[in-house]
Structure of DUF397 domain-containing protein:
Amino acid sequence: MDLTRATWRKSTRSNNNGGACVEVADNLPGVVAVRDSKDPTGPALAFTPASWRAFIAPHRPAS
């Protein structure tokens, strides 16, 4: 997958302590890419927009 045109931004779900930071690129047609901000040249995960929405949706506790 070619991510050279991806515009990366830090996820709002990342912490601000310089630790576990995730970057998301959602400007590409049909894909949401995710990578580790500490390793920007490393691997990235790719999700369909629907899968990404399901992943970040608030989870309800089991009853």
Summary: The chain has a mean pLDDT of 86. The chain has one domain: 9-54. The first strand starts at residue 9 and ends at 10.
